[in-house]
Amino acid sequence: MGGQLDPAVAAVRVAVRKALQDVRPGGRVLVACSGGADSLALAAAAAFVAPRRGLTAGAVVVDHGLQAGSAERSEQVGATLRALGLAPVEVVAVAVGRAGGPEAAARDARYAALAAAAAAYEAEAVLLGHTLDDQAETVLLRLARGSGARSLAGMAARGGPAGPGGLWRRPLLGVPRATTRAACAALGLEPWEDPHNADPAYARVRVRRDALPALEQALGPGVAEALARTARLLRDDADALDAWAERELPALTGTDGSLDVDALAQLPAGVRRRCLRSAALAAGCPGTDLFAVHVDALDALVVDWHGQGPVQLPGRVSARRRCGRLDLEAGQGKS
C-alpha cells in the first residue's frame, strides 16, 4: 500500500483518539476484549493511540466459562493483546448466574469483572467494542418492546461511575461492524467468532441475521445508520427531559416526601412521568422492576383521578392519592 494507512484502521484509531481526548496524560485505560473483530480492532487502536497521548493501555479478557475450551481461548486472546503491546493484560474467569436470563446474567458478570479490574488498576476508562450495528440492533429490539425515549436512545457513548467522562466508553458506536473486520484484516489479526453470535435462539442474533437485512431489502440501504442516528437524537431529547424533571422535582416534593398533584398535572406528560419514576425509585422501587405500566398507573392517580385505590409498585412500595398529595410509602405494596 506504499505506506498509506488502511482507511478502516484509520477510522478505528480516530474513534479511539476522540474517546480518550479528555483522559489526563499519565492515565491508564483498559480495553474489554473478547477476541471478536470489534473488540480486537479496538484493542489494536488503543495500543497505537494511547502511548502517543501519554497514556497506558491495558486489557481485560473475561472468560464466562460457557463453552468448552473457553479458558484456553481466553488465554490465547490475552497473548494476542500482549503482542499488540497492551499491558497489563488480565484474563478473568467469572461465574455466570441465572438472574434475568443467560444474556443478562453474562453481561452482569462481565461488567462486574471489568469494574473490579478498573478499580484494581486505577483505570480512568474502560473501552467497550460496541459498534454502530450493535446500536442499531439495540434500538430495533427496544422498539419492538414498546420502549420509551430513554430506552430507544440505545447505548451511551459514555456512562457509569469514575471520572468526568464516565468509566464505560464506547468509541465505536459510529463505526460499522464491517469496518472493524476490515481493520483486523489489514492488521493481520484473526478474530475469534463466538458461536453464540450465530445462534438464532438469541433475539439479537435474529435481528442481525433476519430483521435488519429484511428492512434493508424493503427500505433500501442505510437502515442501521438511521437507527443509530435516531438513538443519538433521542438521547439528546431524553437528557433534556431528565434535566427538566430533576429541576422540577424538589419544588413538587413536600418534607414528608409526598408530591403536589396539582403541580404535577401542570407539567408536560414527558416531564411529569419522569418525576413520578424518580419518586418511585426514591421510595424504594428497584429500577430493574419498575416498568412503564407502573408509571402509567401512577400517572393515572394524577391526571385520571376518579377515587381509585392505591397503586402497588415493585419493592413493596404503595402509592396513594389523598388531600391533593401523592404519597409513596415503602413496605406497603407487594414484594
TrEMBL record:
Keyword ATP-binding: yes
UniProt keyword annotations, A-Z: ATP-binding, Cytoplasm, Ligase, Nucleotide-binding, tRNA processing
Matching SUPFAM superfamilies: Adenine nucleotide alpha hydrolases-like, MesJ substrate recognition domain-like
Residues annotated for ATP binding in this entry: 34-39
InterPro entries: Rossmann-like_a/b/a_fold, TilS/TtcA_N, tRNA_Ile_lys_synt, tRNA_Ile_lys_synt_N, tRNA_Ile_lys_synt_subst-bd
Domain tRNA(Ile)-lysidine synthase substrate-binding: 259-326
Lineage: superkingdom: Bacteria
GO molecular function, one term: tRNA(Ile)-lysidine synthase activity
Reaction catalysis annotation: cytidine(34) in tRNA(Ile2) + L-lysine + ATP = lysidine(34) in tRNA(Ile2) + AMP + diphosphate + H(+)
Localization (cell): Cytoplasm
Domain tRNA(Ile)-lysidine/2-thiocytidine synthase N-terminal: 29-209
Pfam families according to UniProt: ATP_bind_3 (PF01171), TilS (PF09179)
Enzyme Commission identifier(s): 6.3.4.19
Family under the similarity heading: Belongs to the tRNA(Ile)-lysidine synthase family.
Entry comment, domain topic: The N-terminal region contains the highly conserved SGGXDS motif, predicted to be a P-loop motif involved in ATP binding.
Biological role: Ligates lysine onto the cytidine present at position 34 of the AUA codon-specific tRNA(Ile) that contains the anticodon CAU, in an ATP-dependent manner. Cytidine is converted to lysidine, thus changing the amino acid specificity of the tRNA from methionine to isoleucine.
Protein name: tRNA(Ile)-lysidine synthase
Organism: Motilibacter deserti
Taxon lineage: Bacteria, Bacillati, Actinomycetota, Actinomycetes, Motilibacterales
